[in-house]
Design goal:
The structure is a single chain. This protein is of the alpha/beta class. It is built from ten helices and 26 strands. The protein folds into two domains: 125 residues, Immunoglobulin-like (Sandwich); 363 residues, TIM Barrel, CATH 3.20.20.80. The strands form six sheets. The protein has an eight-stranded parallel barrel, surrounded by five helices. Helix 3 packs across helix 4 and helix 3 runs parallel beside helix 5. The radius of gyration is 23 Å and the shape is globular. The structure holds alpha-L-arabinofuranose (AHR). The site of alpha-L-arabinofuranose has 10 residues, from loops.
Length: 502
C-alpha cells in the first residue's frame, strides 16, 4: 500500500498562526496548586512557582494560555484573587466542588505568563456575574493609573497595565452543567453588551464568544447561529471545544478523530460565515479552539466522586503512545485550518488532562503527549502548505471512510526550512508515503522522528520511567526531490528538511 502527495511553495493555506499552540490553566484540581505553583517546592522561585514545571512549559513551546477556567470561571469573583495574599478569602468552588484558597490570582498568573513568555487569554465570568463586573475586571487589568480600579492594581504592586488583548466572554454557556447556563438568546445578548462595552474602551481587544461545548451537543450549530446573530459585530472569535477518547473501546475511530475536529471547524466556520452573509458583512471570524485534547470521560466518576477539599486530584489522566499519535493528528488538523483557526488551547497544562504531571513536593515529568506538541510548536514555521494528492481510505465506525495518511507541511521562506508532520491513522496497516518536494530547490533531509504505537499502544511514561514513550528515529529517504517515508500503523512523524530560500 502506498500514498503520494506533493507540495509546492505557492499552494499556501496561509501563514502559520502560532496562537494555535496555546494551552489552558484552570483553577481545578492540581493544575494551579502543586501544578504550576507550590511555594514549598524545592525548585520554587521567589514568587512560589515551580521551576521544574516552568522549564517543562518552556520546552513544550506553548505560545498562549487561557485562564482561569473553564467551568471554574462561571462562578469566579476576580476580586478574591487580588490584593494581599493573606487577606484573600477561601471560597467553595461549586463547579469542581473544591476549596479555592485564592493564593494565585490575576496578578500572580499574568506575571508568571510574562516570565514564561506566553500570551494570556483571560476569561470573564458570565455565569453568576455580568456586564458591570466584566467591565470592572477589564479596568483593573488594563487601564492606566488614575481611576479607582486601576489604582487598586497599583496599590497591589502592579504599576503598569497588563495590556491583555484576548478575552473570552464566559465559558461553555450552552452546557446545562455550567453555573449560570443560558439560552442562546440570553447569552448572545449578554455577549453583545459586554463586547460593545469592551470595544468602546479599546477597539484593539480581541473577544471570543462562546460556541458550543462540543460538536455533539444537540444545540450545536443553532447555538452558534443565534449567539452570533446577537453579538457578531462585537466579537472576533467563536469558541469550539472537543475531547476525544476511544468510545466503547473503538480505537479505529479514535485514531481518526482528527476527522471530527476537521468537520467541527468547518461547521463553525460555515455557520459564522452564514451569519456574516445574512447581514451583508465581509467580516470573517476565526475559531478559538480553546479546549481540545484526549480525555477519558468514560472512565471518570465525576467531581461528585471526590471529597470537597483543596486541590483534589481531579482527572489526572495518564496518556499512552496511542494518545500521543492522536494528539499529533489533532495538531495537524489545527495547522491545516490555519486560515480560520485563530487560537487553540490544549486543555490543560499540568496534572488535569495534561502533557505534564507532577508530584506534590516531588518530581515533574512529561506525558506521552508532550513531545508531539513540543516538536510541532518548535519546528512548524512560516507558511502552512496545502498537500495535493491521494491517500488510501480506511473505514471507521464513527466517521465513515477517512484518509489513512493525515499530513501537513510548513515552509519558512526566510530560512528555507520545510517541516512535514504526518500520521498513519490505521490501527493495523503500514504504508509507504511519498512526498514530492521537487519544487523546493536544493532540498535536504535534516531529521525524522516518530512516535509509533502499534507494538504497545498502551505504554505510558511514569516518574520512575519517563522515557517509555519518546520519539525515535524514523525511516525515510530523499531522492530526486521525492521524500519516501515508511509509516508504521498508529504512528506520528515529524520530518525536517532544508531548501534554498527563494
Ligand atoms: O477542561 C476541563 C473542563 O472541560 C473545563 O472546565 C470545561 O470548560 C470543559 O467542559
Amino acid at each position: 500500500m502506498s500514498s503520494h502527495h506533493r507540495i509546492v511553495p505557492e499552494f499556501a493555506v496561509g501563514p502559520l498562526n502560532r496562537r494555535i499552540f496555546g494551552t489552558f490553566v484552570e483553577h481545578m484540581g492540581r493544575c494551579v496548586y502543586t501544578g504550576i505553583h507550590e511555594p514549598d517546592h524545592p525548585t520554587a522561585d521567589e514568587y512560589g512557582f515551580r521551576g521544574d514545571v516552568e522549564a517543562l512549559v518552556r520546552e513544550l513551546g506553548a505560545t498562549l494560555v487561557r485562564y482561569p477556567g473553564g467551568n471554574f470561571v462561571s462562578a469566579y469573583q476576580w476580586e478574591d484573587g487580588v490584593g494581599p495574599v493573606e487577606d484573600r478569602p477561601r471560597r467553595l468552588d461549586f463547579a469542581w466542588r473544591s476549596i479555592e484558597t485564592n493564593q494565585v490570582g490575576t496578578n500572580e498568573f499574568l506575571a508568571w505568563c510574562s516570565r514564561v513568555g506566553m500570551e494570556p487569554l483571560l476569561a470573564v465570568n458570565l455565569g453568576t456575574r455580568g456586564l458591570t463586573e466584566a467591565m470592572d475586571y477589564l479596568q483593573y487589568v488594563n487601564s492606566p493609573a488614575g481611576t479607582t480600579l486601576a489604582d487598586k492594581r497599583v496599590e497591589h504592586g502592579v504599576e503598569q497595565p497588563w495590556g491583555v488583548r484576548l478575552w473570552c466572554l464566559g465559558n461553555e454557556m450552552d452546557g446545562p452543567w455550567q453555573i449560570g447556563h443560558k439560552t442562546p438568546q440570553e447569552y448572545g445578548r449578554l455577549a453583545q453588551e459586554v463586547g460593545n462595552a469592551f470595544k468602546r474602551y479599546d477597539e484593539s481587544l480581541e473577544l471570543v464568544a462562546c460556541g458550543s461545548s462540543s460538536h455533539a451537543m444537540p444545540t450545536f450549530g443553532e447555538w452558534e447561529r443565534v449567539v452570533l446573530e446577537a453579538c457578531f459585530d462585537h466579537v472576533d472569535h467563536i469558541s469550539a471545544h472537543a475531547y476525544y477518547e476511544p468510545i466503547d473501546g473503538d480505537r479505529v475511530s479514535f485514531l481518526a478523530c482528527s476527522e471530527d475536529m476537521s468537520r467541527h471547524i468547518d461547521d463553525v466556520v460555515a455557520t459564522a460565515d452564514a451569519v456574516a452573509a445574512a447581514r451583508g458583512s465581509s467580516k470573517r471570524l476565526t475559531v478559538s479552539f480553546d479546549e481540545w485534547n484526549v480525555w477519558f470521560q468514560e472512565r471518570w466518576q465525576g467531581e461528585n466522586s471526590v471529597e470537597i477539599t483543596e486541590k483534589p486530584p481531579l482527572i489526572e489522566d495518564v496518556y499512552s503512545a496511542m494518545d500521543a499519535v492522536v494528539v499529533g493528528s489533532l495538531l495537524i488538523t489545527l495547522m491545516r485550518h490555519t486560515d480560520r483557526v485563530g487560537i487553540a488551547c490544549q486543555a490543560q497544562l499540568v496534572n488535569i488532562i495534561a502533557p505534564i504531571l507532577t508530584e506534590a513536593g516531588g518530581r515533574a515529568w512529561k506525558q506521552a503527549i508532550f513531545e508531539p506538541f513540543a516538536l510541532t510548536s518548535r519546528h512548524a514555521r512560516g507558511i502552512v502548505l496545502r498537500l495535493a494528492g491521494t491517500s488510501p481510505l480506511i473505514d471507521t465506525p464513527r466517521f465513515g471512510q477517512v484518509e489513512q495518511v493525515w499530513a501537513t507541511a510548513t515552509h519558512d521562506p526566510q530560512t528555507g526550512d520545510v517541516a512535514v508532520f504526518c500520521c498513519n491513522r490505521s490501527v493495523d496497516r503500514s504504508i509507504e508515503w511519498t512526498l514530492d518536494l521537487s519544487s523546493f530547490a536544493g532540498t535536504a533531509l535534516v531529521d525524522h522522528v516518530t512516535v509509533e504505537a502499534a507494538d504497545d499502544p498502551d505504554r505510558y511514561n511514569t516518574a520512575d520511567d519517563p522515557d517509555r514513550v519518546v520519539p525515535v528515529p524514523g525511516t525515510s529517504s530523499l531522492a530526486d526531490g521525492v521524500l519516501t517515508t515508511q509509516l508504521a500503523p498508529m504512528s506520528w512523524h515529524c520530518l525536517r528538511l532544508t531548501s534554498n530560500p527563494s
